Each structure stands twice: as structure tokens, then as C-alpha cells.
Amino acid sequence: MGAFLELKEVHKAYFLHGKRIDVLRGVSLDIEKGELVSLVGASGSGKSTFLHVVGTLDAPAAGTMRYQGRSVFDMNDAELAEYRNRTIGFVFQSHYLLPEFTAAENVAMPALIQRQDRVMSLRRAKELLERVGLGARVEHRPGELSGGESQRVALARALMLAPSLLLADEPTGNLDPTTGEGIHQLLREVNRDLGLTAVVVTHNEVLAQSMPRRLRLLDGRVQAA
Ligand SMILES: Nc1ncnc2c1ncn2[C@@H]1O[C@H](COP(=O)(O)OP(=O)(O)O)[C@@H](O)[C@H]1O
Ligand SMILES: [Mg+2]
Predict the structure, then answer these.
(1) Measured distance CA(124)–CA(33) in Å, rounded
(2) Which class is 5-224 in CATH?
(3) Ligand 1: which residues within 6 Å by Cβ?
(4) pLDDT by residue for the chain (225 residues), tens digit each?
(5) pTM score of the predicted model
(6) DSSP-derived pairing of the beta strands 36-40 and 213-218
(7) Given the CA of residue 50, which atom of ligand 1 is nearest to it?
(8) What is the reported pLDDT for 119?
(9) Mutate which of 10, 14, 38 for ligand 1 pocket (most atoms within 8 A of beta carbon)
(10) Could you state, in order of their start, the residue ranges of all structural domains in the chain?
(11) Of all atoms in ligand 1, which is nearest to the CA of residue 217?
(12) How far apart are the CA of 60 and the centre of ligand 1, in A?
């Protein structure tokens, strides 16, 4: 078996108003289980596109991706949905928490949507909130949380279904540097303690440098940074 995640010659273009924008132009990359990887690149270089393709939110035009030896882009819709639910946790720049629900309910939401047991799900959600340092904010609604706290809740929610691959798209983009460093510290802890593989897109070169493996998107390709 090859790497945990193996991309070969992945291409992705967008078509807008009759114009073709080649964003990913042959991305090849191996990621091993448990790796913590930062990805930097100029605005518009295709970082989000890359995460969407890896997270199967978007289909590539060409190329292959293998997850633990399985060809992901050859999966049918049901297999893809299963792969996404079981494997991938997403954290975005905006937290997208639901304002009318508490922090614990927001974290539990992925399990509740899957009709898992409510009491058990909320118990796990509280444990995850403790894990991200928010044991005292379990009953707060998003409007009663700071930006950094909201992003911690979003991270806990991404961990709810125990993903093996965490994809974070500028998770600290809306935060001040100190709060952002706290989130990166947390990502390092989660990577270490849960053995979670993670790819973290960031604009912050200092935070990017603090990751064990560093990548850069340049001219549609991924290279060591
Ligand atoms: N849905 C879309 N339709 C057309 N063009 C898009 C779309 N999404 C992104 N793009 C273009 O693709 C390029 C890469 O975008 P993106 O992956 O969001 O970059 P980054 O995250 O590195 O800032 C940009 O030039 C952007 O304008
Ligand atoms: Mg982006």
C-alpha cells in the first residue's frame, strides 16, 4: 500500500463567462498518516480549491487520489458521502456555527444529523469542548462567544465524527495573531494526541513555519515550502 493519502497529477479548472481558469495544474503529493502539514500560497493560488478537491466537495478534471490505497475519485455518490463523513473534518475561515444552538449542540450537530443518540452525542460534544479549552462555555450560544472561542467550537465540531483527516482553510484568518496562535497550538495538540492527519491552509507565514511539514501552492502545483 502507498501513502495514507496520495495525489497524482490532479488538475482542476473553473470556467467563468467563457473563460477557463486553470487552478490546479498537476498536483502530486503524498501525505503520511499522522502528518501535520501547512499550506501557504498567494491569494487566488488555489489553496481552497485544493482542500475542496481533497475533501471531495469538488471534483477534479483529471488525476487520481488514493486514500489508504482506495481510489477516491472512482467512488460512486454513496461511497463518496460515506468517505467524506467518516474520513474528513473541515474547519473554515468562518465558523458557520448555528446561532440558535448552544456550543454543545453545534458540536454534536454532525452526529445528530446522522440520527445518533442525542444524550451520547451531547456527552461527546462536551468532552470535545473540554478538549479545546471550552468546558466552561458548553451552554453558550455563538453570539455569547468570542471569535477565537467560536473557532474552537468549530474545531470541536469537525472532530465530532472522529475524522482521520482534518482540512482547515485559513482557520485563523479572522483572528488576531495571539488568538490565531492558540488555535494552531490546539491543532498541534490534536494532531499529536489523536494521531490526526491535518492540512492547514494559512496566510500567516510564522504559523505555517511552526508546522512539521510545509507546502506551498505555486503555479498550480504543490511544492515544499
Ligand atoms: N467557483 C468558481 N468559479 C470560478 N472561478 C473560481 C471559483 N472558485 C475559485 N475560483 C478562482 O480560482 C482561483 C483559486 O481560488 P481559491 O482556490 O479560492 O484560491 P485561494 O484559496 O488560494 O485564495 C482564483 O483565481 C479564483 O478566482
Ligand atoms: Mg481560500
Answers:
(1) 24
(2) alpha beta
(3) 14, 16, 21, 23, 41, 43-49
(4) 679 999 999 999 999 999 999 999 999 999 999 999 999 999 999 999 999 999 999 989 999 999 999 999 999 999 999 999 889 999 999 999 999 999 999 999 999 999 999 999 999 999 999 999 999 999 999 999 999 999 999 999 999 999 999 999 999 998 998 899 999 999 999 999 999 999 999 988 888 999 999 999 999 999 999
(5) 0.95
(6) parallel
(7) 17
(8) 98
(9) 14
(10) 5-224
(11) 22
(12) 13
Q: Could you tell me the three cell numbers for 213?
A: 511539514
Q: What whole-number distance in Å separates Cα of residue 71 and Cα of residue 63?
A: 10
For residue 102, the one-letter residue type is T
Identify the residue whose C-alpha is closest to ligand 1 atom 13.
44
pLDDT at position 138, please? Answer: 98
Q: To 5 degrees, how large is the angle CA 98–CA 151–CA 46?
A: 100
Residue type, 193: D
CA-nearest of 164, 12, 4 to 70 is 4
Ligand 1 binding pocket mutation candidate from 11, 12, 21 (most atoms within 8 A of CB): 21
Strands (E), the chain: 5-16, 19-31, 36-40, 62-67, 70-71, 88-91, 165-169, 197-201, 213-218, 221-224
For residue 205, what pLDDT is reported? 86
Distance from C-alpha of 163 to C-alpha of 65, rounded to nearest angstrom: 18
Write down the pLDDT at residue 206: 85
Q: What share of the chain is helix, strand, coil (3-state, %, to 5)?
A: 40, 30, 35
